[in-house]
Amino acid sequence: MNHEFYFPYNVKAALKNDPPGEWMPALPEGCIRLSSGYPASELVPSNGIKAAVSTLLEEEQDLPLHYLGSPKMPRLKQQIQNRLAERGMKVQEEELLITAGACQAIDLIARALLDEKVVVAVEAPTYMEALEIFRNYTNQIISIPVDEQGLRVDEFASVLAERKRLGLVLPRILYTIPTFQNPTGTTMNEQRRMRLLELSREFDFLILEDDAYGELTFDVSPLSLKALDREGRVIHVGSLSKITAPGMRIGWIAAERPFITAFAWFKKDLDHSFAQSAMAVFLESIDLEERLKKLKGVYQRKCTLLIQSLEKFFPTSVTWYVPKGGYFVWVRVPGVDTSALLPLALSAKVSYVPGKYFFSNQDEGIEYLRLSYSFESEEQIEKGVQILGNLISNHLKNHLS
Ligand SMILES: Cc1ncc(COP(=O)(O)O)c(C=O)c1O
User: Fold this and answer.
1) How far does the centroid of ligand 1 lie from the alpha carbon of residue 213, in Å?
2) What is the pLDDT at residue 173?
3) Which residues line ligand 1 (CB under 6 A)?
4) Which site from 5, 154, 188, 332 is most exposed, i.e. has the minimal number of CB atoms within 10 Å?
5) Distance CA 304, CA 98 (A)
C-alpha cells in the first residue's frame, strides 16, 4: 500500500521536518538530567493530588468519570480567573478556555489561525515544541533574535518595516515567551513590552504570549503582555505544569471572546475532564501562594548553584545569561558543536539540550546548549556541571592543539 497517497499535502510537508522529540535521545541509566524541563519528583504534589482524587470520587462517585466531568469543573476556571485577575489580567468566563496543557493551547491557536499562507514570527531561539506545532501548519516562519532583555523588538520593527516596503506578507502572529523564556531564561523588559504592543497595532498582528513560567519569579514578575494590552491583541497561554504536575495536563487560553469561541470549536472534548475536576479540588485544598513561595525558593537556590558551578567548572570563554526566574540557563560554548558533544556527555551520564533545536534555522544554535535546574538535586547539578565543564575543556584543548 502507498501510505503517502492518503496524506494531504500539508501533512506530507509537515512529515518532512524532524520528528517530534528528536532533540532528546534515550538517556542512559543514572544520567544527571540537566536536559529535563520539568519539576523534581519531590516538587510534584502527588499526595495532595491523591487526596483530591479520593475526595472527588467519595463525594461524587462516577460523576467525574463521565464526559461532562464533575460539577466542580467550573471552579477550576474560577480559580484560574482569580489568579489571572491578581496578576492584572481581568478575563470574563467566556474569555477563558481550559486546555490539556499549554501545548494543546498552542496547537488549537495554530489550528484556528494558521494555514500555509500565514506568516508566523517567533523568537530565535524559542520553545522547540511550539516550533514543531507551527511547522505542522505553515512553513512561513520568520525568526527574530533574543538578547539578555528578551525579544529584540527593535529588530522586529525593522523586519516589519522592510517587509512592508518590499510588499511581502506581514506576520499575522508573533509567538513570544516574554517571561523567563525557554530556552534562554531571559525576560523582556517593560519598554520592549510597550513597544511591541505599539507595533502590533501599527502592523496589525496578534501576540501569542506563552506564560508557562510567569509565576516562577525569584523576585517580582513583570506585568504580562496581556495585562498591558488595551486592544485585545494578546492571546495569553498559561499552564499549571511547572507549578503543580505536568501529567495533569492543565493549561488555558485567555483571549477575546471570538477567538475563544473558535478555539473551543476545535477543542471539543479532547481534554481531560477528570484531571480538571481533580485539579479543582486540589487547588481548593492548598494555599497556592505558599506553594509558589516554596517553589521559588527551591528554584532560586538551584539556579544560583548552577551559575556558581558554571563559574567554577566551565572554561572562561563560555558565557551565559543569569535568569531571574523559570527553569533554564542558556549557555554559549564558542568553538563547540554542542550536538556533536552530546553523545560524549551522555556516555559520561549528563544530559543537556543542544541549542540547534530551539531555532528554525538550526545552524544558528550550534554553539549553544540549554541547562535546566528544575529536575536534579543541588548535589547532582554541581556534579553534572563539573562533568560537562571537564568534557568541554578537554574538547577545546584537543581541538586547539
Ligand atoms: C515555553 C513553554 N510553553 C509550554 C510548555 C508546555 O506546557 P504544558 O505542559 O502545559 O503543555 C512548556 C514546557 O516545557 C514550555 O517550556
Assistant:
1) 8
2) 98
3) 37, 101-103, 127, 177, 182, 210, 212, 239, 241, 246, 251
4) 5
5) 34
